[in-house]
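Example 3.2
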Amino acid sequence: MGEILFHIFLLGIVAVFGISSTNINTARATDPMGPSGFPIIILTFIGILLIVSLVKAVKKYREEKTKMEITKTGLKRIILLLLSLAGFALVTPKIGFIISIFVLFILMFNIMGQTGFKSIILGLGSATAIILLFVVVLSVPLPRGLGIFKELSYLIY
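Structure, written as tokens:
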């Protein structure tokens, strides 16, 4: 049922963006499609794919006889993951993005059951990939932190 609701939510977002893209000012457009043509085409394509996926999800939901239930450990993991994300948002301005994303990934891997040296390697690799993506490829300035954390971030990027 959650998958169906998520599809409906996404269709709503696509509809809102579709309506917004029709209101783009086309006064100085030289292209016959105008500046709103490309977003409308992409959003239409996304909407069609979402409808197809929604139909498949409804068929799958009707065929399933058993209900999926959230176990206590699953609920505990969800709450811990949400708390770790909230903690990440709170400490990132103070200790900077580099250290906080590394700690977040290791913590999330441990919550999901991956422990030991493998979680450290996965955390380090994931954090490095995210930092390279945002800093090098997208040129997004990340929070540097305060004091020594700020100086550390200047050494890295």
